Amino acid sequence: MKILAVDTSTVVASVAIMEDTNLLCEYLLNHKKTHSQKLIPMIHEVLKNMEMKLEDIDLFATTIGPGSFTGLRIGVTSIKAMAYALNRPVKGVITLDVLAFNIPFCDAVICPIIDARNNQVYSALYQWKEGKQERLTDYMGIDIGELIKMIKETDRNVFILGDGVNVHKDELSRELKGRCLFPPNNLLLQKASSLAEIAMREFNELNKSDEPDKLLPFYLRKSQAERLYMGREHSSM
User: Would you list the domain boundaries of the chain?
Assistant: First the structure.
């Protein structure tokens, strides 16, 4: 089985092709957030390098959020369109699950953080148990200070990764001291190869996929435009 996996949930754009247990190709671009211009050429490039056509893909996968509202719509819409046109199954995976999967078989708690601006992050806590990734909390849109309090209550070492690290690393290191671990830079951000692995496992082991027309982005909060509009509506009452 061949899977095409796409992530556009943050500034990173990533595309991977996996066949069964083999990662065949991965293309990761961390330069500006112009996914509308770059995603389709990236997909064409990996298919060309693998001497494949889109029709050769058996399963399509995408991250569904949380993350950038515009980026998520581009990735989800593109994957839905391809899967629908070719009558193929599609799998949507939460971005935080994909990030956490970068740190496998780890004794520490794993805490992915995606920058949500205004001192907020999208996050969840995970651990590995019996060879499987297990989520310990709900998916959260949370103030970084509140997340630090939650991490302290675990009384365990914590691996923290994601683009929120670049924004909050000093505070995390200061507050959590020696309990705070960060991965090397090559594992800091989400990767389409991690997405492909999760999607493949869920599809093969759980026979779990999504209908293309029902796959939607997963938002933990309203967009900035919606929040501003609601604020103006409230102030005018």
Answer: 2-95+190-231, 103-187
Task: Determine the Cα–Cα distance for residues 219 and 228; give it in Å rounded to an integer.
Answer: 17
| Phi, psi dihedral angles at 21 (to 5 degrees) | -100, 5
For helices 69-86 and 35-49, give the axis angle rounded to 10 degrees.
Answer: 40
pLDDT in tens, 66-95: 999 999 999 999 999 999 999 999 999 999
Cβ neighbours of residue 29 closer than 8 Å, sequence gap 6 or more: 12, 13, 14, 38, 42
Domains 2-95+190-231 and 103-187 share a fold: yes
Q: Concatenate the DSSP letters of all residues of 115-132 into one string.
A: E-STTEEEE--EEEETTE
Query: Helix H segments across the chain?
Result: 35-49, 69-86, 95-100, 144-154, 164-176, 192-206, 224-235
What is the rounded CA–CA span in Å between residue 16 and residue 195?
A: 9
Q: Which residues contact 83 (CB under 8 A, 6 or more apart)?
A: 60, 89, 90, 212
Q: How confident is the model at residue 236 (pLDDT cuts 50, 70, 90)?
A: very low
Q: For residue range 87-121, list pLDDT tens digits in order.
A: 999 999 999 999 999 999 999 999 999 999 999 99
CATH 3.40.50.1820: does it fit domain 2-95+190-231? no
> May I ask the CATH class of domain 103-187?
alpha beta
